[in-house]
Amino acid sequence: MTTRRTLLLGLGGLALAGGGYSAGAFREARRQADSRLFGQATLIDTSTGPLEYAVAGEGSPLMMIHGTGGGFDQGLLFASGLRRSGFQIIAPSRFGYLGSAFPDDVSPAHQADVLVELLDHLGLDRVAVAGGSAGALTAAEFTLRHPNRCSHLVLIVPAANLTNRDPVEFTALQRLAVGAVLGSDFWFWSLSRLAPGQMIRTLLATDPAILDRVSDAERQRAHAILDQIFPISRKVDGLRTDGFWASTPSTTAHERISVPTLILSCEDDLFGTAETARLLADRIPDARLTIYPDGGHIWLGHDDALTREIADFIARAENP
């Protein structure tokens, strides 16, 4: 925690240096981000307002629920290997992210109910459901509240407070430093280019030293995940909501989950999801657990293995 605090406090100094970046370059980065997002997703009306989603690929449907800082684009990125493996990916943007609504009730349980409306719109009776990081909160609630709509549950680096203690505890000063970065598109963009390693450690909870040990494709994936958080101004409500629900003691009745469940994490995840994954595996009946020895919160170096594991798990559950 001392190391993290030092890194977070260092962001303040880096932010001052970031002020020297060209305003024109920043505007161009914002234009490119808007172009990347434009036309990829669809909006539908739901009981709580607009819900944004994208569909990619062909095959068995799998709904990928994105993590903190994401949106439908992160869901598509997380599931890109599964799409290539023959799955059709349904990737919604959760409450407060990109084009989706931010209603009064932004609980994971309410989000799960609204995702049923998405399946109804798409004419899908039953799908596999995967949730990454804070998206695992919604994925678990979806499975509990709508078991007839979920064939399999996959929880990837699941964020949850299962011990009445926030797995990621920040001091007031640390929260101030993170808030300063997350509250400004310009500071986020500047720091992502001045100090990408520190941003990967702080926001993606992954030791940047791992980047030197993985393939070019995996390094590109790490930077893509970081880059997709931008523009952060369109995700602030979702980010704050995730921080609240991931730190609040969980009331989800995981022991009542009845569908085949796979849980995946990495031992060195700086958000502590390996321990959360073990606790969930103890609570969810017959859950299968895989913890990679390294890879951080974005499972660096293990994306191909994770893809194979999920695909094999779904295939075996369908054909026992």
3D structure, described in words:
The chain has 320 residues and is α/β, with parallel strands linked by helices. The protein has a single domain (24-315), classed as Rossmann fold. 47% of the residues lie in helices and 15% in strands. The protein has 13 helices and eight strands. The chain has helices at residues 2-18, 23-37, 72-78, 80-84, 108-122, 135-145, 172-182, 185-194, 196-203, 216-228, 236-247, 273-283, 303-318; strands spanning 42-46, 49-56, 60-65, 87-92, 127-132, 150-156, 261-266, 288-292. An eight-stranded mixed sheet has the order 1-2-4-3-5-6-7-8, sandwiched between helices. A hairpin with a 2-residue loop joins β1 (42-46) and β2 (49-56). Residues 1-21 have low confidence and may be disordered.
